[in-house]
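testing teh design pipeline on a random one, pls ignore if ur not involved
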């Protein structure tokens, strides 16, 4: 039996054990240093078992985010999943405005804002059909060994999308 191919897109310094950690920045020493918009040039259609994309989609404009979702669907095997975590602006209303601004715009690093509805709409437009919101304490970044007692911030949304 072949070892499953599981990807961590835009890993930055959060490398996940057992994943192929991918980033465009060679300084973070990813397993694969590429532009994510070319992910389909590195993986054949239906060759990947699981994709984790934690806090990467908000760094792209709408069209690029949509294209990346389509490419993820293309390289995923049938009945496999993509797990996306993004900051959720609708969960920031009770935060002080400065904190809310930092979460939503990340000092100008974010190109888009998300909430659950927008994320599900974009996934549907990309060809995914089954969605499930995932409790934040169940996302893979919590298994990073050098983080002690990680507690996810409540202003995020995580969605698992199934390729059918």
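output:
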């Amino acid at each position: 039996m072949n070892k499953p191919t599981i990807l961590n897109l835009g890993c930055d310094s959060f490398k996940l054990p057992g994943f192929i950690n991918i980033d465009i920045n060679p300084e973070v020493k990813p397993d694969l240093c590429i532009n994510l918009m070319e992910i389909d040039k590195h993986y054949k259609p239906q060759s990947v078992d699981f994709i984790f994309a934690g806090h990467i989609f908000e760094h792209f404009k709408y069209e690029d985010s949509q294209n990346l979702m389509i490419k993820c669907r293309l390289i995923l095997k049938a009945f496999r999943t993509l797990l996306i975590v993004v900051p959720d602006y609708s969960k920031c209303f009770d935060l002080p405005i400065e904190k809310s601004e930092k979460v939503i715009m990340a000092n100008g690093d974010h190109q888009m804002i998300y909430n659950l509805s927008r994320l599900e709409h974009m996934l549907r437009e990309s060809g995914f059909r089954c969605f499930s919101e995932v409790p934040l304490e169940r996302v893979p970044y919590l298994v990073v060994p050098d983080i002690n007692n990680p507690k996810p911030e409540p202003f995020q949304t995580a969605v698992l999308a199934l390729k059918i």
